[in-house]
Structure formats: structure tokens, C-alpha cells
Amino acid sequence: MTSKNITQNIKDLSSEALDWAVIQKDMKNKLGRDIYESWLRKIDFVEEMNSYVLLSVSTRFIRDWITSRYLDQILQIVKIYKKDLTRIEFKIIEKNSENEIENNITKKENNENVSFIKDTYLQYNRIDPNKRFDNFITGTSNKLAYEASMKVSENISHYNPLYIYGGVGMGKTHLLNSIGLSLKEKNKVMFISAERFMYQFVKSIKSNDMVKFKEYFRNTDILLIDDIQFMNGKEAMQEEFFHTFNALLDKGSQVIISADRAPNKLSRIQDRIKSRFAGGLVVDIQKPDYELRSKIVKQKTEELNIFYSNQINISEEIQKFISTEITTSIRELVGAINRVVSFSRIYNKVPNLSEIKVVLKDLLNIGENKVTIDLIQSTVCKFFKISKSEMLSSRRSRYLVRPRQTAIYLTKILTSKSLPEIGREFSNRDHTTIIHSVKTIEKLKEKDPEMTNNINNLKNQILYNKENEI
Ligand SMILES: Nc1ncnc2c1ncn2[C@@H]1O[C@H](COP(=O)(O)OP(=O)(O)OP(=O)(O)O)[C@@H](O)[C@H]1O
């Protein structure tokens, strides 16, 4: 199997019809089970046109939520299978029959004296048996977080709350899960992501089930809450969380929190909550150094080799290549090994180094992507001869609006930032302003060659530090 064949196989995928079930599976893997179950599972496929795909959801709220947070990632996944699709459109199709079914279930369960709401939580309280302390590999960057998690599992309320933070894919969920696993025999454990907490919270308000919601969360012995940064800006949810949190600490329950940043860096989260977080034990997980990366690669390769009865022998050279090149996160590292193993099983041979480069192309690119919003803003400001404070101001003079829209457009196409993230970097503008800016520039590009020229020029400067080539 040559690199050309592999590339061809990847290309061949584009000629097949879009299989929504496959895309849903990818969304689940890429964005995680919680986000998938809460929002993405509700998306139905309607039809595929030349350049866009039409999907449906049942309410405007769900559409807006998905559009503002996950649209980019969904499009990226869709493009893997159909690179010609450039847009996703949503249609609202109300699902009365689904609501009726849900109401009937509620009634049935109420009759049987089983709390509907409680069961709903339990469905999402699944602890993953594969993420344990004994398969968490430690190194300098995560040792402290690991040891603190072990301590909490041995001695509840010793450090309360325990707050673990670190970048994406560094092992925070793995540690929270391990704590949950080791304490669940003797304690009532609740493991939930902040996103799911929010979803249940909104659902309980809508269905007048707040009492049960409060009771359920306040009755737990161990509350593990993942990705707390997600609460940003959601005042009502923060209020509820704060009271739940205090009630739990008062009764001696253990609270463990994970986030992508330190408590004092959390944005749009009430100060009293941040200060509560900072009052417990705060530990971070840093980026893995080479030593840890190579330990993980070695151990995971050995595990998989044993699992597949010694049929997969990934050479030291390849192990070293992966450990050196994939530095972004442990998730990428583990993903890379899994991909190499899948390749070996499909093609019945271990890939050589040049094949590895094809198989892991997208992962290897991640580390090289150095385009930041700051770079885009500065380059655009220099190009249009305006200052950065003018660009970020709220002034609407024409000589500022176009450069601002251009910078927003370039951020959208050159980075993987979501619309709200881009909005925040442009002085907290709303995501609808961001959508409007992108659409305006797209339209202008179609009819104004000067605009196309400017955009190409700017793209070159940002990506390659060159002025005139594309
Ligand atoms: N030290 C480690 N040893 C073994 N596996 C690890 C380690 N750290 C992370 N992993 C694995 O890497 C993957 C990503 O880890 P995890 O989901 O815990 O990251 P995270 O920090 O919670 O990321 P996110 O912020 O995206 O939720 C998981 O499959 C996890 O089991």
C-alpha cells in the first residue's frame, strides 16, 4: 500500500453519498458524549444540495445553540466525507410526536413511582470503566494532579473542593473518572459535565422539576463536575450551582472540579464561585514533556500489541517519531497510536515512516498551526493603516467597519475558533455580528475583485509572511 493509495482511499470517500449515521458517530467521538447527547443527537438530516447540507432540529433555541457553538466542528466533520459542502443550513421541524412520547414516559414512570428526572440523570452518570488510576501514566507534568486525585479517593474531604485544570486532552476527565470509579462502591457518586448540568437545569425549569433537580444533586456524596468553564456567562446556572456546591460542602460531601484554566482566569464566572474554587486544592496538568509522551506511546503500543495477540509491532523509530511530533495533547497522542494500529489491521502491515506521515497528516499539522487572532488583527490593522484600538472599538465609521469585518472573516477561515470565541476576541461582540461580518465579506468577494485581492494578500501575509503569492 503506497502513500498515494492511502490518499486515494481518503479521496474516494468524497464521492459517496453523505451517511448521516457515520457523521453522528464522528461528532460523538470528536465532541464527546455529553455534548452529543445533549445537543447533536437531536439533529436530523434533511437533504444534501450541491454546496450545502440541510439539517433539522426541533426548536430555534437548539438551532441557535448548535450554530453558535458547534457549527464549525460539524462542518469540518461533514467536509471529511464531502469536501464540496461548504455550508450547513438548519430548518426548524417541531416534533410533537416526540414530545408526546416523552410525556407518556413521564406519566408512566410517575405512576410506577419512579422519578423520571432521577432516571434521566442516571443515564448520564455513566462512569467509564476504562479510565482508571492504574492506566493513568504519570510524568512531571501531571504527577501532582494524579497524587491529589489519589488522596481524595482515599480520604474524602481532605482537600475540598479539588480543582484540576489544564489544556484540552491532558487527562482531566480521565482523573475525575478514576476518582469516581474508586469511590463509587461505598458512596453515591455523581459525575457530570457542566454542559450536561446546564442542560438538565434548563430542562428541569421547563418541566417544573426544580425540586427534584436540587434534591438529586444535593444528595450526592461525591460530585465530580467536568469542564466548569462552560458555565461562563450563565448567571442562573451559576446561582444554582453555587447553592448546590455550598450545600454539599456543608454536609461534608466531596466536590471535584475540572476546568481548562485556573480559577482566577475563569471568565464571566461569579467572583464568589471563583473564590470558593481557589479555597480548595488547585492543581494543574501541564503539557506532557517528551519523557511522558514517549512513556505513553510505549505503554499504549504494548497494551494494543497484547490485545491483538502480538500482531502489531510498531517500530521504535515510529514510536519515537510520534512522541517527538505530537506534542499538543495526550488525546492526540493516544489518537495517533490508535490510528496507526487501525491502519495495521486494515492493511495487514505496520505503516512505514512516510505512510505514517500521511496517516497522521492532520495531527502533525496541528502543532504547526501558528495563526493567532492577535496576528490576524495586527496584520489587518497594518494593511488598512488603522490602530488596533480603532479596530476593536465600537465605532461604525466605514473606514473601520470593513477592516474589522475582514479581520473577523480571516479569523473564521484561518483558525478553528468558534463564533462566540471570535466574538470575545473582538471586544465581546455577539456571535450574530460575527456571522454577519463573514457573510458580508463573502458577498463582497464575489463581486469585488479588489476585495478578493486584499483577502488573498492578507492570507499570504498571515500564513506565509509573504505579500503577493497565494
Ligand atoms: N496520563 C495519561 N495516561 C493515559 N491516558 C491518558 C493520560 N492523559 C490522558 N489520557 C487519555 O487521553 C484522552 C484524553 O484525556 P481526557 O479526556 O481525560 O482529557 P481532558 O483533559 O479531560 O480533555 P478535555 O478538556 O477536552 O475534556 C483520554 O483517552 C485519556 O484516557
TrEMBL record:
<dbReference type="GO" id="GO:0005886">
    <property type="term" value="C:plasma membrane"/>
</dbReference>
<dbReference type="InterPro" id="IPR010921">
    <property type="entry name" value="Trp_repressor/repl_initiator"/>
</dbReference>
<feature type="binding site">
    <location>
        <position position="172"/>
    </location>
    <ligand>
        <name>ATP</name>
    </ligand>
</feature>
<dbReference type="InterPro" id="IPR018312">
    <property type="entry name" value="Chromosome_initiator_DnaA_CS"/>
</dbReference>
<dbReference type="GO" id="GO:0008289">
    <property type="term" value="F:lipid binding"/>
</dbReference>
<dbReference type="InterPro" id="IPR027417">
    <property type="entry name" value="P-loop_NTPase"/>
</dbReference>
<keyword id="KW-0446">Lipid-binding</keyword>
<keyword id="KW-0547">Nucleotide-binding</keyword>
<feature type="binding site">
    <location>
        <position position="173"/>
    </location>
    <ligand>
        <name>ATP</name>
    </ligand>
</feature>
<dbReference type="InterPro" id="IPR038454">
    <property type="entry name" value="DnaA_N_sf"/>
</dbReference>
<comment type="similarity">
    <text>Belongs to the DnaA family.</text>
</comment>
<dbReference type="InterPro" id="IPR001957">
    <property type="entry name" value="Chromosome_initiator_DnaA"/>
</dbReference>
<keyword id="KW-0963">Cytoplasm</keyword>
<dbReference type="GO" id="GO:0005737">
    <property type="term" value="C:cytoplasm"/>
</dbReference>
<dbReference type="InterPro" id="IPR020591">
    <property type="entry name" value="Chromosome_initiator_DnaA-like"/>
</dbReference>
<keyword id="KW-0235">DNA replication</keyword>
<feature type="binding site">
    <location>
        <position position="169"/>
    </location>
    <ligand>
        <name>ATP</name>
    </ligand>
</feature>
<dbReference type="GO" id="GO:0006275">
    <property type="term" value="P:regulation of DNA replication"/>
</dbReference>
<feature type="domain" description="AAA+ ATPase">
    <location>
        <begin position="158"/>
        <end position="289"/>
    </location>
</feature>
<protein>
    <recommendedName>
        <fullName>Chromosomal replication initiator protein DnaA</fullName>
    </recommendedName>
</protein>
<dbReference type="Pfam" id="PF11638">
    <property type="entry name" value="DnaA_N"/>
</dbReference>
<feature type="region of interest" description="Domain I, interacts with DnaA modulators">
    <location>
        <begin position="1"/>
        <end position="104"/>
    </location>
</feature>
<feature type="binding site">
    <location>
        <position position="171"/>
    </location>
    <ligand>
        <name>ATP</name>
    </ligand>
</feature>
<dbReference type="GO" id="GO:0006270">
    <property type="term" value="P:DNA replication initiation"/>
</dbReference>
<comment type="function">
    <text>Plays an essential role in the initiation and regulation of chromosomal replication. ATP-DnaA binds to the origin of replication (oriC) to initiate formation of the DNA replication initiation complex once per cell cycle. Binds the DnaA box (a 9 base pair repeat at the origin) and separates the double-stranded (ds)DNA. Forms a right-handed helical filament on oriC DNA; dsDNA binds to the exterior of the filament while single-stranded (ss)DNA is stabiized in the filament's interior.</text>
</comment>
<comment type="subunit">
    <text>Oligomerizes as a right-handed, spiral filament on DNA at oriC.</text>
</comment>
<dbReference type="Pfam" id="PF08299">
    <property type="entry name" value="Bac_DnaA_C"/>
</dbReference>
<feature type="domain" description="Chromosomal replication initiator DnaA C-terminal">
    <location>
        <begin position="372"/>
        <end position="441"/>
    </location>
</feature>
<dbReference type="InterPro" id="IPR003593">
    <property type="entry name" value="AAA+_ATPase"/>
</dbReference>
<dbReference type="InterPro" id="IPR013159">
    <property type="entry name" value="DnaA_C"/>
</dbReference>
<dbReference type="Pfam" id="PF00308">
    <property type="entry name" value="Bac_DnaA"/>
</dbReference>
<feature type="region of interest" description="Domain IV, binds dsDNA">
    <location>
        <begin position="345"/>
        <end position="470"/>
    </location>
</feature>
<keyword id="KW-0067">ATP-binding</keyword>
<dbReference type="GO" id="GO:0003688">
    <property type="term" value="F:DNA replication origin binding"/>
</dbReference>
<dbReference type="InterPro" id="IPR013317">
    <property type="entry name" value="DnaA_dom"/>
</dbReference>
<dbReference type="GO" id="GO:0005524">
    <property type="term" value="F:ATP binding"/>
</dbReference>
<dbReference type="InterPro" id="IPR024633">
    <property type="entry name" value="DnaA_N_dom"/>
</dbReference>
<keyword id="KW-0238">DNA-binding</keyword>
